[in-house]
Amino acid sequence: MRSYGLPTRARSIRSALWTAAASVLWCAGTVGAQEPGARAAEREAFAWPWEINFHAISKAMVERDYQVTQVRRIIDRSQPDRLGEWITLRECLTHAAEAGPHSKAFQLEYLGTEGKQLAADELARRTREFDRIAGFLYHFQGFRVFDADLAERNYELAFAGVGQRLDRSVYVVTVTPRHNDRSRWLLELDVRTGYPLYRGEYDEADRLMAEVEVTEFAASVPDDLEPFRERYGVERHPDAGTAAKAIGLDSASVPGTDLLPPGFEMGSSRVLTDPLSGDRRAVVIYSDGVEQLFLRLEPSPSWTIGEGHTFAKQRGPTGEVQGSFVHKGVGYLMVGREETTVREALLKLYAQVASD
Predict the structure, then answer these.
(1) How far apart, in whole angstroms, are the C-alpha atoms of residue 110 and residue 112?
(2) How many angstroms separate the CA atoms of 148 and 209, rounded?
(3) Is 82 within 8 Å of 75 (Cβ atoms)?
(4) Number of H helices, E strands in the chain
(5) Which of 17, 41, 154, 276 has most Cβ atoms within 10 angstroms of its Cβ?
(6) Each residue of 76-103: pLDDT tens digit?
(7) What torsion do the CA atoms of 112, 116, 117, 119 make, to the nearest 10 degrees?
(8) What b/e string do you get for 189-227 counting C-beta neighbours within 10 Å, with b at 16 or more?
(9) Contact partners, residue 5, CB within 8 Å, separation at least 6
(10) What predicted TM-score, i.e. pTM, was given to this entire model?
């Protein structure tokens, strides 16, 4: 894999904003300098910067057809107490306008590693590995608006300038959390469609941790798009309590939102069934509009690490943090983007279940 040195890539949001602001001086005329027919199309998403909001960004990513080639770069943080090399993935994302909130009309395909030609057998191996996490990468690894109203309450969206990417006019915006324990984002939004042609994730120290850069963009999809297929059987439930009961657990095992970090609210609940083993797990999703926390519950887990105060924590290579514990034969696994958020939520959850 190609390695990116931190001194050249870990730029701060402040320097990125300075560059974006400077671009206004030479790009100020580009948004309006379109042919008359093209200008009408440009106005479809954002005619002016003050029209940018979380609802519009969500709509652009969910309710439109598009096919993009992109490069995903993620700092490997799987080793404790250090930042590793950059993991790079070249991808093709095809997305059909969603007909409903649970539509799976997308494909995310692995194309290779940036700057490296892979042998056929190595490409096949990495493609199999990629296919196992493609759903996670699409839905959760990069910036996405899950609930626009919640996002507006928990994040500040600010205009930072205008620019060009792929010969398309873009608005540069920042997304800053109102609670300081979460990621910051730098976005370049295509003026014509609203789609983010660049998404950069920064940590609390303003270090670039991950980014998705679009290298080709088309506002259309092929007619033979095959929808994404879940690896697990999925049962959706109206609330977390019924999902827990569906796998034989008491609803008291599920934490309320009062135990979660500020701004998080209860989202969807489901039961996942492994098609090979038949094992069933309840998954509860919490969100602050942009970030998500996942709580997985299962009876007598195979990864039992002991009872009581025994905790395990690990960070996956794609940036997610996992924390877990076992209490009275029930396994609790929490997954999120930020270590502080996961740790605090898990400790509060343990205090609740241990007092029952």
Answers:
(1) 6
(2) 24
(3) no
(4) 8, 15
(5) 154
(6) 876 655 567 888 999 999 988 865 444 5
(7) -80
(8) bbbbbbbbbbbbbbbeeebbbbbbbbeebeeebeeeeee
(9) none
(10) 0.82
